Amino acid sequence: MINGMTLDLNLRVVRANAEVKSPSVLFIHGFASSGEFNWDRSRWLKYFTDAGRDVLLIDLPGHGEDPRRNDGSWAPSQIRQALAAIVMDLDEGPVDVIGYSLGSRLAWEFAAFNPDLVNHLVIGGPGAGDPLAAFELDQARAHVETGEKIHDDYTATIMQIAKAEPSNDLSALFELIEAIKSEPYDPAAKVPSVPTLLVAGDQDDLATTLPHLRRLLKNAGTRNEVLWLAGRNHANAVTSREFKEKALGFLNS
């Protein structure tokens, strides 16, 4: 379960369908999703492997087919160490990183703390705050155990998302939220130095603080670009072909 006190994240390596000329791409999915749900079903894997990219697809703790494969802390700092171990163990050299929603927070921190392991960074649906900080764990747990109504609107929305995927283990997701709350997100504490693309739907309420992230990048002297997806929200931005095309073009730049 634990290898040298590093989380053993479920990893799937998907090889390119064409000649490989560029670095592998590490995909980090969002909350209540999985590598398959976030990236395979929305055809990111096929798009990138067809373009000659090997893909590193992980499941975060509490997610995927084996949500409890990891003992120990699931805090973001431990997830970062596990991602670094994957990249180094595979001897991939620097990789390109794409994260969405919660994955964008983790990708931001991973690139900021490990600039030697990352070439380019793409983060979708990002915000300057912690998307799970306001989640009311007590209300959510009571709802699952007794059917009690959730009174916090934001928590109710996140619960709808979590319950929409039948394979999700809600108690495991709650444990991950608890671990994430133990290390509040402060994007200004360490800013990525690698070229960064910020992408969000223009109807995404969770991405209204994206401009703050861009200011942090600009102030740090980090090359950055922004793409707003017309008519897209937090739930469907990830399925956008424009997002895929812009991301691949940015990684190749």
What is the domain tally?
Answer: 1
The neighbouring-strand order within the major sheet is 3-5-4-6-7-8-9
- Tell me the series of helices and strands, N- to C-terminal: EEEEHHEHEHEHHHEHEH
Individual helix count: 9
Mean pLDDT: 93
Terminal-residue CA separation: 39 Å
Beta-strand content bin: 15-25%
Low-confidence stretches: none
Organism: Glutamicibacter mysorens
Domain AB hydrolase-1: 23-139
Protein name: Pimeloyl-ACP methyl ester carboxylesterase
Pfam family, one: Abhydrolase_1
Ordered list of secondary-structure elements with their pairings:
Blueprint: E1 2-3, E2 6-7, E3 10-14, E4 25-28, H1 35-40, H2 44-50, E5 55-59, H3 76-89, E6 95-100, H4 102-113, E7 118-124, H5 137-146, H6 153-164, H7 170-181, E8 196-201, H8 210-220, E9 224-229, H9 241-251
Parallel strand pairs: 4-5, 4-6, 6-7, 7-8, 8-9
Antiparallel strand pairs: 1-2, 3-5
Helix pairs in contact: 3-4, 5-7
Domain AB hydrolase-1: 23-139
Protein name: Pimeloyl-ACP methyl ester carboxylesterase
InterPro entries: AB_hydrolase_1 (IPR000073), AB_hydrolase_fold (IPR029058), AB_hydrolase_sf (IPR050266)
What does this structure look like?
- The longest helix has 14 residues, at 76-89.
- This protein has helices at 35-40, 44-50, 76-89, 102-113, 137-146, 153-164, 170-181, 210-220, 241-251, and strands spanning 2-3, 6-7, 10-14, 25-28, 55-59, 95-100, 118-124, 196-201, 224-229.
- It is built from 9 helices and 9 strands.
- β6, α4 (102-113) and β7 form a beta-alpha-beta unit.
- α3 crosses α4 and α5 (137-146) runs antiparallel to α7 (170-181).
- The protein is an alpha/beta fold.
- The protein has one domain: Alpha/Beta hydrolase fold, catalytic domain (Rossmann fold, 3-Layer(aba) Sandwich).
- Helix content is 38%, strand content 17%.
- The protein is globular.
- The strands form 2 sheets. It has a 7-stranded mixed sheet, sandwiched between helices.
- It comes from Glutamicibacter mysorens.
- Pfam families: Abhydrolase_1.
- Residues 23-139 form the AB hydrolase-1 domain.
- This is Pimeloyl-ACP methyl ester carboxylesterase.
- InterPro entries: AB_hydrolase_1, AB_hydrolase_fold, AB_hydrolase_sf.
